[in-house]
Amino acid sequence: MSLPIVFIDGDQGTTGLQIHQRLQGRTDLCLVTLPAEQRKNPHSRAAAINACDIAVLCLPDDAARQAVASISNPDVRVIDASSAHRTSPDWVYGFAQMNAAQARDIAGARRVSNPGCYPTGAIGVLRPLLDAGLLPRDYPITINAVSGYSGKGRAGVDEFEGPYAAEAIPFQVYGLSLAHKHVPEIQQFSGLSERPVFIPAYGSFRQGIVLTVALQTRLLPQGVTGATLHTALTRHYQGSEFVEVVPMEESRALTGIDPRQLNGTDNLRLMVFENEGHVLLAAVFDNLGKGAAGAAVQNLDLMIAGA
């Protein structure tokens, strides 16, 4: 049996480079990339994508759409790390721990859209609670999140590590139009009936995300507490290899959350805090790990196993 051919289109960006580094030493697949002089040649790219078994697209949205449009080989399967296809009904959403059937759906899919980094945390804390009926689908959700500057891609790395790094703003809230491109993705896959408010920010650290959602128990179904929500999250992710729910007694001892604590891993860590009618849901993960390259490799492994 021949090894699956995996083609990375866009292996020089932050996500593509990480995926390439993770795969280049593996012996259970044949890794293909284009030499520098062919990367922008549409004919070379089309030939490579149509000759592979699984293409991993690490491209801007428009380029990802063009790459998919160039596929004429019906046997080619795709993982798209851009946001071009995340809310498309023809693509399987690549968050394997989202529900009991998602990993199986990814394994058998022809087209998989890798989740966005921020949506991974938001959906991770919200979806199990909405599915369990513990959080009303029309709850007025506000999501606050801070990412390392690598979330901007190469532009962010150049800004903070390049010759003008001393001039970089150390912390910046953005998305002030309240129309960030991740909002439809968060709403669709969390199961919210109303559009959430999403307030992202960048900090002066390379990678890592901390994301929080504040709730008021008076707006939740009668009898629902922080402990109830924590139990539901624990039950949902029980046995998960990549998602951890921190015991509430450990969370109570915390005085802060370092967004970098899971850097270099593919894990997602969830926490629940509670005090006098207020609950805070928190998620921590590496924006280049579970938020990007790590999720892509997890999806790739599922697809190879399901072939």
From TrEMBL:
Span of domain Semialdehyde dehydrogenase NAD-binding: 5-106
Keyword Transport applies: no
Known function: Catalyzes the NADPH-dependent reduction of N-acetyl-5-glutamyl phosphate to yield N-acetyl-L-glutamate 5-semialdehyde.
Known catalytic reactions: N-acetyl-L-glutamate 5-semialdehyde + phosphate + NADP(+) = N-acetyl-L-glutamyl 5-phosphate + NADPH + H(+)
The enzyme's E.C. designation: 1.2.1.38
GO molecular function: N-acetyl-gamma-glutamyl-phosphate reductase activity
Protein name from the UniProt record: N-acetyl-gamma-glutamyl-phosphate reductase
Classification lineage: Bacteria, Pseudomonadati, Pseudomonadota, Gammaproteobacteria, Pseudomonadales
Location (main, coarse): cytoplasm
